Amino acid sequence: MRWDLVFTGFQTCTMAVLMRLVSVTILAATLVICAPAQVQQEANPSDAIAFEQQGRWADAVQVWQRVTEKNSRDAAAFASMGIDLARQQKYSEAASAYRQALRLNPKLPGIQMNLGLAEFKVGNFREAISPLRAALATDSTNQQARTLLGLSYYGAREFAKAADHLQIAAKADPDNAELQQMLAQSCLWAKRYSCALDGFRRILQTQPDSAAAHMLLGEALDGMSRTPEAIAEFQTAERVSPREPNVHFGLGYLYWKSRKYDEAKAEFHNELGVDPNHAQAIAYLGDIEMKNKNPDAAITLLKKAVALKNDIRFAYIDLGIVYSEQKRYDDAVAALKRAVELDPSQPDAHYRLGRIFQLVGKKPEADKEFATVVSIHKKADQRADELLAPKMSNAPPALRR
Fold it and tell me: Which of 103, 109, 101, 110 is nearest to 75 (CA)?
């Protein structure tokens, strides 16, 4: 199931913020060794070192390029060229130089760390993981490598692994609020709700008026099936910041989940007062109209929702139900097939398709859908559809440059 990606001021984590979480250090060019004697004067490593001492990184890179052209197996020269490229913030080029150095000499000290840092800096989080793991394997006390690895797992959306490393990093730096925030969010999305709960509560101790922190705490409580407490957190967030994006939607959804449809309807309308094109709020209003036996109003709202955002799965399910009740079977089938496309592992759309095929006399198609229901029903995670966190955003805010 996919949902709107919602960024709040509390949640958005830019690369500038992330860089405050780690000491961003490019290992000094102590790796440089003298090139073989046959290297010509214009490709002399000592010239590159002289340029480096003057801060003339671009000139130093040109010399290293000539050195590597003369000796394509000089691993230290590639490593030094990477360092000087990184000093110019040319991280992609630096990463290429580091990789070449490691291909020639995998044991060069410090270059795995530099490579991981360069990939991280350009947002290649998945590519940063392997070298950072190698750096950490070399020195398990390297907190920079540990923190960068946790953040890279977060950026790659491997939240359980992110939480594993960020928990260690946060323990070593308990006063780092930003690191605590990233850990709590990783725990939330790894469904480690107790960890998330502890994290967001710690954040609220220093930021008691943070509406976003109350909302995230509410999401964690909802994940622990403590919906009344989750509602209380969203109510607090609403009082603190009534125009906070998604606060009314989150509260409305929790009311909807508790079958308090009148309260839910009011909150969804409040959300539309903040964002008139909030597709999910519109979709849930359509669902409430369907439940209240107002099919025409439901169709109007549901169609508007999927026109704004065409991957709201439950809206297609609702359209399939309403169209089927109106005997608009072709429309119902089209809507339910779209729901299947969005998540074929859920049995509800398959079952409803089977019922429609049965009604219109398409027995083979009906049998196929019912067989699918039987095969997936035991392993289908019905509760996942009921959690608030996936509806607040498709995923935690991406790590951005």
Answer: 101
